[in-house]
Amino acid sequence: FKRISFKGKSKDELVEMGETFNHMIDLLQTNYEKQEQFVSNASHELKTPLTIIESYADLLKRRGMERPDLFDESIEAIHSEAIRMREMTEQLLLLAKHQEQWNIKLEKINLIEFMAESAKVFQNAYHRNIEIHSKDEIFATSDVQKLKQLLFIFLDNARKYSDEFIAVYIGKTGNEAYVRIEDRGIGIPKNELEKVFDRFYRVDKARTRKQGGSGLGLSVAKEIADAIHVRIEMDSLEGRGTTVTLFLPSK
Ligand code: ADP
Questions:
Q1: CA distances from 235 to 103, 130, 164 (A)
Q2: Are 230 and 150 in contact (CB under 8 A)?
Q3: Which of 23, 60, 127, 195 would disulfide-bridge 64, Cβ 3.0–4.6 Å?
Q4: Looking at per-residue confidence, does 243 or 93 come out higher?
Q5: In what residue span(s) does the HAMP domain sit (predicted)?
Q6: Which residue has the CA at smallest separation from atom 19 of ligand 1?
């Protein structure tokens, strides 16, 4: 903030300054409330996996000796909840850090090679096949690490919310290259499409609970996309599947 001097100002100028001042206070108040909501949501979401870990650890401590059959289930739950907490913490740190500190390095990327490589990593990790469709060589200007992160958020959602088919189409329209990710999964109801990019928002918690996740993926995606000038379009039909198109600068 710059210091403002009220000396020698006319009445009209003072009234105008007063209005600006009120506007600034409103903005600060809204930002503060958003921040407060964010911290409260984050604590709440982190508490769930922590409670699960605590109760399984407690169960093992009390009954582990006499009930070795509890062992596998408990370790499995503790392990997957710990992973969920780590992922959530990483996403929260990314959201808390300002984009200016992200150290974006733009370069020319061969999208087909890039996609083939990313799909290989994904397939090895999750044993899910990805079909890649493309006609010509397509180039985009982007940051390799950030683009990979962005792509993985959408591929991971396609995996979590569908059983079989995931396809990626790469192409060009005008000055932009595009990457379209298609799944034939559970889809998203029309009236929820806008909201899924909000922090912590999940369509029907019961439906999505078993897939893990935090409701943070798409808000992180939005931040990354802004930083590397990617436009996101999302289309979905409930029960049929979801299509996400990323438009990238291609100069
Ligand atoms: P999460 O960690 O819950 O996946 P996201 O922010 O990535 O968080 O997504 C928010 C919500 O949007 C998800 O909980 C899910 O309900 C819905 N969603 C996102 N991608 C898809 C998809 N490909 N198919 C169906 N639902 C999706």
A1: 31, 19, 19
A2: yes
A3: 60
A4: 243
A5: 1-33
A6: 157
Q: Strands 241-249, 107-110: parallel, antiparallel or unpaired by DSSP?
A: unpaired
* Alpha carbon separation from 2 to 18, 29, 98 (Å, rounded): 15, 19, 21
> Are the beta carbons of 227 and 102 closer than 8 angstroms?
yes
**Residue 221 CA to chain centroid, in angstroms?**
4
Among candidates 91, 205, 97, 100, which has minimal Cα distance to 153? Answer: 91
Q: What's the CA-to-centroid distance between 16 and ligand 1, angstroms? A: 45
Is a pLDDT exceeding 90 seen at residue 5?
A: no
Alpha-carbon gap, residue 186 to 51, rounded angstroms: 29
Is the per-residue pLDDT at 241 higher than 80? yes
Name the nearest CA neighbour of 233 among 131, 135, 140, 154. Answer: 154
Structure ipTM over 0.90, yes or no? yes
Strands 176-183 and 139-142: unpaired
Tell me if 159 sits within 8 A of 128, measured CB to CB: yes
Are the C-beta atoms of residues 91 and 156 closer than 8 Å to each other? no
- The conformation of residue 216, written as its DSSP 8-state character, comes to -
- The response to whether residue 241 sits with its C-beta less than 6 Å from ligand 1 reads no
Q: Report how far residue 224's alpha carbon sits from residue 136's, in angstroms, rounded to the nearest whole number.
A: 27
| pLDDT tens digits, 100-140 | 788 899 999 999 999 999 999 999 888 899 999 998 899 99
Q: Which residue lies with its CA nearest to atom 16 of ligand 1? A: 203
pLDDT the model gives residue 197: 95
The dihedrals phi and psi of 215, each to the nearest 5 degrees, come to 80, 10
> Ligand 1, atom 13: nearest CA belongs to which residue?
202
Enumerate the H helices of 64-110 as residue ranges: 70-96
